[in-house]
Amino acid sequence: MALSVVMPALEMAQETGKLVSWLKQEGERVRKGEMLLEVETDKAVVEIEAAGDGILAGVTAKPGDVVQVGRTIAWLVQPGESPPAVGSPARGARISPKARRLAQEKGIDIGRLTGSGPGGEILADDILAAAGAVTYSPPSPVSTIGRLMAERTTHSWTTVPHFFVTREIDAGALSAARERMLPAIEGSHGVKVTHTDLLVAIVARTLTQHRRLNASWTAEGIVSHEDVNVALAMAVEDAVVTAVIPRADRAAVADIAVRRRDLAERARAGRLQPADVADATFTISNLGMFEVDAFTAIIVPPQAAILAVGAIADRVVPVDGAPGVRPMMSMTLSCDHRVVDGARAAAFMRDLAAAIRSPQL
What we know:
This protein is of the alpha+beta class. The protein folds into two domains: about 5-150, CATH 2.40.50.100; about 155-355, Chloramphenicol acetyltransferase-like domain (Chloramphenicol Acetyltransferase). It contains eight helices and 16 strands.
């Protein structure tokens, strides 16, 4: 029995997806779990696994096509079986008069679209969806990931009302906790614990007491998330991707460290999976390893906030009423003012600073 291959939904409120490439050729045998195609999201290019065994046939979408979520773009058939008839994205595809007029107005190449109407007819909604997916075109040369980052940050900066809260925090106890944990976790899990791993655990647990920071702005208003899924901004060849540590508030530091290492390795290799980039509720961007003192980060919609972390460095600060040298760390919280007000942001940073000063609690 033929198994349909559909454009998957990888993000909240996603309506369309862009096919980047087929990883199997039409007519090639595919096994369940093998990587079948690459799809573009607003965070990364992710590989999609085959849902079953079969021969790839009846491909109706080509690289670059913008396709509605849930639409069949190919079939996995058994030997001797023919794929069911589906609409074709060829230039001769049927198109409604309104859709044709919109395509001309917005400069959309209808030959790159898969219609969502009966028999593959291209409708006005298909044109509008395609127009929304190509509103920003950075100059070439630029990689797909680089273009995605440009589109995402431009949209966020121009549509989300940002404000920023900064704290200088004594990181002495944080570093001491890392030194204590390092030998045991490296011996049992084969991974070195980083300051970022500890921050993920501490931030996630602090978020459970500040639910508005673990929320999203949607068309229906503010949506609070039950799970605390912390994303980490990771540098790849010429861009930044955000990969997710799910339910980080309930994860042990060792498990966070293993997950972070695995995500970083696969991000650099371009092998992130849909689950690796989906459902993030809060993001941490740490540039401390690059000796950056402080910076501000752009929010990743629909999240309500992102935490920018600078380097730990010795500074002269008041210690018990006298000048002293302490390892200090600068943190800047970027907030969506539609979801978080100044008082809530300040309270979160206050409690986060206290938790960093006493990580053993």
